[in-house]
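Hi U.,

Before I forget, here's the chain from the pilot set. I'm dumping it here mostly so it's searchable later in email.
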Amino acid sequence: MRQSKAKTYAKAMVAAFDGVSEKEAKKRAQILKRMLYKRGDSKQISKILQEFARAWKERNGQGATVVASSPLLGKTRKQMEQSLAKKRYIMEEKVDPGVIGGVALYLGNDFVIDGTIRGKLKRISKLLTNSNE
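Structure:
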């Protein structure tokens, strides 16, 4: 069975971007873009990017975002990275002082755990609002 052009380009992209710096990845993306226009395949960019995202996640794991009020300490960060890696998630850390304290976890695009003080205050506020009605 013949593979679609989008899948072929996506596989080539995964190989081309694996293990390179962000600067090098940007250069390679520009080269790929020019090549797609030269070959008349620029109309397939959306499909190619969808296939690339799927193939990248399949190969490298899905993203997990950890949001905390301050950067995670070394030991905590390492434990979280290891736990998420066992489930094939790649951890990305974001700092948001607005969470006040604690941690929120997103797996892919899904919100999973809200252990932040801001989240707890919102839940308490909702309970108090609902109990007054």
